[in-house]
Each structure stands twice: as structure tokens, then as C-alpha cells.
Specification:
The chain is mostly helical and 207 residues long. 47% of the residues lie in helices and 10% in strands. The chain has a three-stranded antiparallel β-sheet, with no helix packed on it. A two-stranded antiparallel sheet has the order 3-4.
Length: 207
């Protein structure tokens, strides 16, 4: 991920890729994000819209995959910094282009330099081009979601917390996909039982 972040420095979609990596969002959730969902005062970001393209038509919906997909998460400082920078660039583009700037998606975060909504295929295609150009392992855009989950688990985040972060509808979904990666909790369990049953332990259980 560090190599990937170095590769996307200055890229037009740097914020989009970083937000996917930090929050483990689905592609549709990312593209549906609006400025009204970002609270810079209370430092939160809400996931409550999605963008899909069906039969070449852009579909914007307030109905996510499941009810649990609607979630409010802490605004990570790195993403906040990038958001503020991106907002300033949008305002600059809008002032420069004047009436030529597209305003239909003005509340959406992920628009291009003329105000058009960034489309799902554009995001995925650009991601693949970055990986190829920098000799990085070829993965799907959706795998940034899995990378986020893997890193969180490796750093001790519990499955229940991960479920809420990713917006899965139930615990079993998260557990089925990621329990094999939750090795940190097994290490803690091993340390606990090893300490309790150590030959010199004063807390050794009676058998």
C-alpha cells in the first residue's frame, strides 16, 4: 500500500484511491459521496449514497446495499487534508470555466475538472493503468477494500468493529470473509493461556 500511495502522488484520482484504501468503501459508495456528508467541524464522514451506471445511464441512489451500509465514520486527518485540497481545486476550476462548468453534480465530491461525475469504469481503468505503469501487483479496485480489512485485522481491530467499518449487514458475513486473517486475536489468546498455565504462574488453574 505504501508503494501504491507513492505511485498515486499528484494523480487526479489520488483522493479517490486513498479514500477507498483508508475506508474500505465499495466503488459505488465512494462515487456517491457528497460534500454534505462530510462534517469538517465534528470530523465525521457519512456513507449514505451510491452511484451506479446501468445501461449507460447514471443512477444516483440513497439506498445502499443493506441498511448497515449506511454508516458514519471518523474523518481521518489524511483524508480531511486531501478533501480540503480537492475542494479548493474544484472551486478554482469552477471560477475558471464559468458557465462552461457542469453544475448538475455540484454536491458530489468525485467530479472531474469540468464538473462531470467520475464514472465507475473510469475509476477502475485508471487504477489498472497506475498499477501497470509502476510495476505493481495487478489487483482489482475492489481489492483495496480487502486490503483495508486485512491491515485493520493485522493491527488488532476485532471482527465486530470491522463489520461496522465495512458496512456489512451481519457479523457472519465479515467473519466468513476475514476470520482466517484475524491472527492477532489468536496471538492474544495464545499469550493469555501460556501465561495462565506457565510452570511458575501463581494463577495456574487447578485441574
Amino acid at each position: 500500500m505504501n508503494a501504491f500511495f507513492n505511485a498515486i502522488k499528484g494523480h487526479p484520482l489520488e483522493l479517490a484511491f486513498k479514500t477507498l484504501a483508508y475506508y474500505g468503501l465499495r466503488r459505488s459508495e465512494l462515487l456517491g459521496m457528497k460534500w454534505s456528508s462530510v462534517d469538517f467541524i465534528n470530523k465525521t464522514i457519512s456513507v449514505n449514497h451510491k452511484v451506479l451506471v446501468i445501461e449507460r445511464k447514471i443512477l444516483v441512489s440513497d439506498k445502499l446495499k443493506t441498511e448497515s451500509s449506511n454508516r458514519t465514520l471518523p474523518l481521518i486527518p489524511e483524508i480531511e487534508k486531501q478533501l480540503l485540497k480537492h475542494k479548493a481545486e474544484i472551486e478554482k476550476n469552477r471560477a475558471h470555466l464559468g458557465k462552461a462548468y457542469k453544475t448538475k453534480y455540484s454536491d458530489f465530491i468525485f467530479v472531474n475538472t469540468i464538473g462531470e461525475l467520475i464514472l465507475p469504469d473510469t475509476l477502475s481503468h485508471s487504477f489498472g493503468k497506475v498499477l501497470k505503469a509502476h510495476g505493481l501487483k495487478r489487483i482489482r479496485l475492489h481489492d483495496l477494500r480487502h486490503s483495508c480489512a486485512s491491515i485493520m485485522l493485522a493491527r488488532g481491530v476485532q471482527i465486530k468493529q470491522l463489520q461496522e467499518w465495512l458496512g456489512h449487514s451481519n457479523y457472519s458475513t465479515t467473519a466468513d470473509v476475514y476470520s482466517h486473517l484475524d491472527f492477532s486475536s489468536k496471538i492474544q489468546s495464545a499469550q493469555t493461556i501460556a501465561s495462565a498455565l506457565a510452570p511458575n504462574s501463581h494463577n495456574r488453574s487447578e485441574l
